[in-house]
Amino acid sequence: MLRATLLQIGQVLTVLLLAPLLQGAIVQFEERVQQAQGPGLLQPYRDLWKLFHKQIVIPDTASWIYWAAPFVAFTAMLTVPILIPVLTDFPLPLSDMGDILGGGLILTLGSFMIVLAGLDSGSAYGGIGSSRAVMLGILAEPALIVVFVGITLLAKSMLPFVVNHLLVAEPAVYWSPAHLFLITAFFALLLAETDRLPIHSSTHIEVYMIEEARILEYSGPLLALLKWASMMKQFILYVIFSNVLLLPWGLSRKGEALDVLGSVAALAVKFLIVALAVVFAETAQSRLRFYRYQELLAASFVFGVLAIIGTQLS
Amino acid sequence: MLAAHLDPLVSSVFSLMAIASLVLAFVMLGSRWLNNYLYAFAAESWMIATLSAAVGYYGGYPELYLIAILTALFRGLFLPYLVWRIIRRLNVAREIHEILQPSSALVVGAFCVIFALAVSYKVGSSLGLAGTVAVLALTVMLSMKLIGFLMLAVRHEALSQILGLLVLENGIFLGAQILVPGMPLFIEIVILFDLLIVVACFGVLVQYLVAHVGSTSSLELKRLVG
């Protein structure tokens, strides 16, 4: 019991501490692909350190929502790792709090609070960012729900652990069209949700700003919390993509110390593969116009529907 | 029936190829550029040719190899070449006025697939084929037909309409390969030559449109003449 609890804490700490490293790795790879030097793998840590030592400046119009949003977003991202297989392939204490839909709900809660905070300060940019983020959410949610339904039909369960076990145990299911389409659909969603091209929202150019516009009024430690939360969201989505769907192998079976270290190493390898795919997608594509965002997400929706069809036939 | 008793691995290979051609039909539905339709159509035809060769190999129908070669040559090379020649002569690179945006068309197409699944479920369970690759073949066939109709309905460049018709026909052909692989060779050859005539007729029609209406968009055909 004690070991299980420690493992659970370890899962949360893994997400908390390694999320900036993932962000740094992706940025570094992208710079390298473009034959630039790059800021280095550890730059996100340095950024967070710098922001935590700065002063907080608060707009006059801000209400309590402005204060609450970073903490809610950060806490939500600390909660989700409890529900998903980060290090072990068996459920740990409290991981029965929610299934896939529950995890999705908590992920969205953080983003919902940031939307409110963007509107709260009353600045024009915050309003634009929030409205665009909600628009993107409206387009992405149906595809996400269809993917969840597909996963559920594939594994006859809504728990990520069951999906993981099924895919490891049966290669026929792993290579079935339904599963391959789920991977494709989720990859498109992953690009959209983690601010990668073709919808790259975390730039400082006003025309494209989505993520940045919502948190434009924040400064200092609060901004650091928000940035950290978004890196953790990216890490969590990568965990779900690689440990549940794409590469379900290499998780700790018994939960012993050496096992767990091995699964951290496996996680690094898996993330390297996924990050290289993402870097390729970012390099190969150009940014979509705002009014063409739905094309990517409609494609993801179609793949989700095809996956559901595939599950009905196997 | 071949489809009812197949090795699981073989039936999953068949279903992968069938679904891949359905995906290519979606690529055609979701793109704006006429050239991209054409490439997707050619790829789809090659996929179907591979499928019929695979059915021939696993089902023991040697005449299907001939069909596969003919399909690859006619549908995969010759028909796209003819359509490509028409496109090159016309200077029309893309759909200009869309009736339905590509992304909306994709979503409508997805609903067509769901409808096709429901229908083929009914058919499959009444024939006692539920859970076999036959249901998948029926689904892919019906949904490719519906997507072909959708392309005919929402696109108005004459060339996209030719390709819509060809997708529709490809769907029927694909379904036939899996459901009734022993279909007599001559019928298949006749269908292939029919397609040639269809494309040739469309070529003449397009020339007529350009000469008399001044554009290849069917939206311009408003006046009823008798």
Instruction: Please report the number of helical segments of chain A.
Output: 12
Total number of strands of chain A:
0
Proportion of residues in helical segments of chain A? over 70%
- Specify the oligomeric state: heterodimer
* Arithmetic mean pLDDT of chain A: 87
Instruction: Specify the biggest β-sheet of chain B.
Output: none
* Sequence of secondary-structure elements of chain B: HHHHHHH
Summarize the structure in words.
The complex is a heterodimer of chains A (314) and B (226). Helix content of chain A is 72%, strand content 0%. By secondary structure, chain A is mainly alpha-helical. Chain A is globular, with a radius of gyration of 19 Å. The mean pLDDT of chain A is 87. Chain B has 7 helices and no strands. In chain B, helix 1 runs parallel beside helix 5. The radius of gyration of chain B is 18 Å and the shape is globular. Chain B starts with 7 loop residues before the first helix and ends in a 14-residue tail after the last helix. Chain A binds chain B through residues 172, 175-177, 180-181, 292, 294-295, 297-299, 301-302, 305-306, 309-310, 312-314, and chain B through 8-9, 12, 15-16, 19, 22-23, 26, 30, 102-104, 106-107, 109-110, 113-114, 117, 121, 131, 133, 135-136, 139.
Features:
heterodimer; A: mainly alpha; 0% strand; globular; B: 226 residues
In short:
The complex is a heterodimer of chains A (about 325) and B (about 230). Chain A has about 325 residues and is mainly alpha-helical.
Topology (elements, then pairings):
The complex is a heterodimer of chains A (314) and B (226).
Chain A: H1 2-33, H2 43-52, H3 64-83, H4 100-120, H5 124-155, H6 160-169, H7 171-174, H8 177-193, H9 211-214, H10 220-246, H11 257-284, H12 293-313
Chain B: H1 8-30, H2 34-59, H3 63-90, H4 102-127, H5 133-154, H6 158-179, H7 185-212
